[in-house]
Amino acid sequence: MARDLSRAIALFEQAAAEGEPEAQHALALLLTSGVGLPLNPPLATTYLYFAAEGGSLAAQLALGYRHLLGVQMPKACNKALLYYNPAAEKVVAGAQRLRGGQLIEKIRLSVDTMPGSGKRGGVDDEVIQYYESSARKGSVDAQLTLAHLNFHGARGMPPDMSRAFQFYAKAAAAGEAAAYSHLGHFYAQGIGVEQDNATALEYFRKGAAKGHAPSQNGLGYMYMHGYGVKESHSKALEYFKTAADKGNAEAQFNLGAMHIAGMGVKKSYDKALHYFTLSAHQGHTLALYNLGQMHLNGLGAPRSCPVAVQFLKAVAERGPWGKQLGEAHEALQDGDAATALQLYVGLAEAGYEVAQSNVAFILDQHLTAAPNKTLLGMSRGDAAQRALEMYRRAAQQGNVAAELKLGDYHYYGHGVPIDLEAAVGHYRAAAEARNAQAMFDLAYMYAHGLGLARDFHLARRHYDMAVEAAAEAYVPVQLALVELWLLGLWAAYTGRTDSPSVLLGEELARWHAALGLPRLSEMPTAEDLTPAWDTVLILVLTCVLGYILSLRLRQHPIHEARVP
Prior knowledge:
Elements: H1 5-17, H2 21-33, H3 41-53, H4 57-69, H5 77-95, H6 125-136, H7 140-152, H8 161-173, H9 177-189, H10 197-209, H11 213-225, H12 233-245, H13 249-261, H14 269-280, H15 285-297, H16 305-316, H17 324-333, H18 337-349, H19 353-369, H20 380-396, H21 400-412, H22 420-432, H23 436-448, H24 456-469, H25 474-494, H26 500-514, H27 526-555
Helix pairs in contact: 1-2, 2-3, 3-4, 4-5, 4-16, 5-16, 6-7, 7-8, 8-9, 9-10, 9-11, 10-11, 11-12, 12-13, 13-14, 14-15, 15-16, 17-18, 18-19, 19-20, 20-21, 21-22, 22-23, 23-24, 24-25, 25-27, 26-27
């Protein structure tokens, strides 16, 4: 049906008054985003509390995130823990079933993934058709790819265990070790087939004979629990160790589990922590959860609530509710930015950093592409402030690109008054994370004395750092270095620290007064003309550098290869 926010709000309010937690959570989102309702953070927080108490996992995530990082309320790690734990435990309960399911893809928006870019975050029909055609022709790689996509439900495809099994079986028939381990997994867990330990062992042994780490882990799992074989912790440890040494995350987790439980080895929290950490670095959900619990209880590591909650947050964000990320991306690709924004806002308030970044990106793009149009009823000023807030939250969670955008917003005065010192602070934070653009921006500000004391040496140093961090910065940096050289000459011969562009603006203002032209209120000042003269100066330098390069090419012409 057509979108009707006023009708939706009326129904949400009616349901919320009757104690429906999801309606309370929906009202909280509208009140905190200013969509359909005036911004009212205190009332939004009240609704979140009621929704969380009523069992809304989305509300629990939102409160956990706010308490953890102090968003619109004081930091309180213990309270964050209370809200993240239920969601994390639900995710772990699903992960322990060891079955296939929808893979949550965190697609970060960029100009290359927006509609009209010619690119999509997911796999399009033509690519799927190519894989299917290659699979029919016997390509084992294509068969494995299609099997993985169907098993995990990745790239916009729904999970389909039957098709996944078929493609794994075809690859196994060609002797592919990776297919052996997956088929062993199917039979060991009874996924889409009748559970059969003997068949599972057969496939695991075929894969292990080829040195395949996941198959070796599968054999270790069968021996650890005595599935189809006599239980043997020593053999389980042997297989797990072999697979773990090859970097298999599941085997590393299993070794950690055996050490923490003292299965076949002396109980050791230190070794358990070591193996869980190795596995968690590869994104293993249960390893992340166990690390959270160990840091929370001081097992093998100092007790630390903040560290523990960060692990539990990572686990909680792997829940099925995260599929909204994919739904939002599909809506955006279909040209429905309003729906995409609503879906991203829900996850952004729940603390998903990628959703916060994407909300800010959509609003940022909308402000640039359609400055006179509203999106979900937000004015231009509201949209700019909302984008600024989302960039701030994303940067708070370590997003370097968001830190850079915060610098831009303060430099140009988007959503906030121009504040060059604040811009410098954000650029420095991004530069410390090796962001080349931030280094370039700092160099420019040092060269022109913008928000910083003018320092040609530090400007040169930051330009050099930008090239070291990103090779593609070479040409812009060379142009900037020519400008820096000219600025140095100007300062040396005139004793003036002002930029030549400022002096040109002052001279133009003097000419205007000397000619006796009327003083209009809208007449640009010297400061207004500075950016324009900077642009002219850069264009002149570009032409000079291009001329120099053309002379060098004439001295060293490029000879075309001749076909004999």
